[in-house]
Amino acid sequence: xxxxxxxxxxxxxxxxxxxxxxxxxxxxxxxxxxxxxxxxxxxxxxxxxxxxxxxxxxxxxxxxxxxxxxxxxxx
Length: 75
Description:
By secondary structure, the protein is mainly alpha-helical.
């Protein structure tokens, strides 16, 4: 793709613009560091870790809102 440090978002944009689906990722020594899909896998795992607490918090908030709703009044 290019030499030097390439930010992953810029690399993804360039891949999309050129219709490239796969590319290699090299480390600072020029050795193979993996593929772009390895980066995507890593980011997906990180997002899943972040999403867990958010999902639990949303569930607790929904439960709280259901518990604090006004009870029906009986005639």
